[in-house]
Amino acid sequence: MQFGVFSVSDITTDPTTGRTPTEAERIKAIVAIAQKAEEVGLDVFALGEHHNPPFFSSSPTTTLAYIAARTTRIQLSTSTTLITTNDPVKIAEDYAMLQHLADGRVDLMMGRGNTGPVYPWFGQDIRNGIQLAIENYALLRRLWDEEVVDWSGQFRTSLQGFTSTPRPLDGVPPFVWHGSIRSPQIAEQAAYYGDGFFHNHIFWPPEHTQRMVEFYRRRFEHYGHGSADQAIVGLGGQVFMRKNSQDAVNEFRPYFDNAPVYGHGPSLEEFSRETPLTVGSPQQVIERTLGFRDYVGDYQRQLFLIDHAGLPLKTVLEQLDILGEEVVPVLRKEFAALKPAHVPDAPTHASRVAARGGAKDATVYAAADDVTGQVRDEAPEEAQTR
Amino acid sequence: MSTRTLAVVSAGLSVPSSTRLLADRLSTATVAALRERGEDTTVTVVELRDHARDLADNLVTGFANEALRGSIEAVTGADGLIAVTPVFSASYSGLFKTFFDVLDKGVLAGKPVLLGATAGTARHSLVIEHAMRPLFAHLRAIAVPTGVFAASEDWGGDGGVDRALAGRIERAAGEFADLVTGRPSAAPTEALEGPFGGTPSFETLLRGV
């Protein structure tokens, strides 16, 4: 099972000091958080995509490529990539590029975005949200899976004989998760393709998450990708830990009470009871997280949200230390002991390459170079031998 | 004799409240009218005052907490709904509207609803027509033709209720009972296919593109 952190990339005032970090500080902080996540032994770092304040992460592949250069092991992902408003051609290119630079340590999570106005910023219409997610992803799949694509659809100009470059690393595209909180159509989409399904989980009662995951599992089996318990499931989680649980509650309460998403509503205690939020000792986090399995079954990826609501970088890094030293090693062992052998691990580039029967160079060499006019057999020798 | 389920939503704030009083009269009359038509009835009353904070929390968090979930399920799963609000600033109260704001889309579609409203003065008599009916039309519920409005003065007659008000209550209950018995019992919230059973298959979704 994979454990990691995901960030929504919010720039939020620290309610205890009244100070708001600059974009520059938060952008550098997210790099520090990703590096620390690798250092403490986590498996995944995922970053959101937003195009409006108070968020900074408009360009996740730039950030993830930079992180890739400064790490060696951690899997890089998104939370989420906007399949609705990004041109699928650009997603195909950007993430294949990132995949090469990161030596395959890349997957991504498709989402529809957090705000209605983002649609017109990119020339789209929110009323087409679900249909955009379906058509754009259908095109993205073809751009990765087929070398030469002819395409015509409802939402973008047609493609004739188009080849998306670079080709996916070793001929194997990044694994895709589909994130959705309340749209069963997206769970259906994930099931249809045999892709992963990620439920945000953290702002909702467990029953809600359970129903969506159950639906995805049943449909995954229906489409013939394996039995329902072999479907690939990821969950969010939200934690704040200190050695003594009362210290955690006292320290986190002002951040909770003023959090942009749920602040000024229920109390910390009420929200902790109704949702997976766990504020307390590492042991409490371990027990609560193991309990997720009771209602979604054996799952493959657990991502924690730890850097939101104005928490300062120093605190976030301390949280990562606790996760890496005290929580994840226990969870790893306990979840592994519970998981039946026929339930797969989260796909990685290595496992997907192996499943395809090994790596192959997928480079597509142009028959003729339309810049220089050279035809292929005149091309320099190194271009052909790579 | 089959058994019907009735949910009563009352948005009265004081205890006792004339809104709850009207809700109880409507509910008692409906139970009697259903019994005349050969149906037993179980009644669940949802006092929105008890959910004032739950509803505010729902607005902020986007989900109903456990206490509110129970009441929402009672309403969405019922064969018929009686909805009664006090008049605040010439319309239904904010608390009343919030309850219907947080319901999932479509959950009241086709459900018979008996509307009631109370106010301190008869000058608000048309509030059911100009405020409540459009709301329930939007929710695609089937509002009973007779809605019952009661001003303070209507409670002053013999036996605590003005004869005309009692007559309106009885007529409304009869119309409501006819609507409820004319329909099959509400299906259990989760049909055989399980949750999201109505989701189109991916082939259908693709064709929609």
What does this 3D model show about the protein?
The complex is a heterodimer of chains A (386) and B (209). Chain A is α/β, with parallel strands linked by helices and 386 residues long. Chain A has a single domain (2-385), classed as Luciferase-like domain (TIM Barrel, Alpha-Beta Barrel). Chain A is 42% helix and 14% strand. Chain A contains 13 helices and twelve strands. In chain A, strands 1, 2, 3, 4, 5, 8, 9, 10, 11 and 12 form a ten-stranded parallel β-sheet that branches. A two-stranded antiparallel ribbon of chain A has the order 6-7. In chain A, strand 9, helix 7 (206-222) and strand 10 (233-241) form a beta-alpha-beta unit. The longest helix of chain A has 26 residues, at 313-338. The two termini of chain A are 36 Å apart. The mean pLDDT of chain A is 94. By secondary structure, chain B is α/β, with parallel strands linked by helices. Chain B has one domain (2-207): 3-Layer(aba) Sandwich (Rossmann fold). Helix content of chain B is 41%, strand content 21%. Chain B is built from seven helices and seven strands, in the order βαβααββαβαββαα. Chain B has helices at residues 18-36, 52-61, 66-76, 94-101, 127-138, 163-181, 202-207, and strands at 2-10, 39-47, 80-88, 91-92, 112-119, 142-143, 148-151. In chain B, strands 1, 2, 3, 4, 5, 6 and 7 form a seven-stranded mixed β-sheet that branches. In chain B, helix 1 (18-36) packs across helix 6 (163-181). Mean pLDDT of chain B is 91; it is low at 189-193.
Keywords, separated by commas or semicolons:
heterodimer; A: 386 residues; alpha/beta; TIM Barrel; two-stranded antiparallel ribbon; 13 helices; 14% strand; B: 209 residues; Rossmann fold; 7-stranded mixed beta sheet; 41% helix
Question: Briefly, what is this?
Answer:
The complex is a heterodimer of chains A (386) and B (209). Helix content of chain A is 42%, strand content 14%.
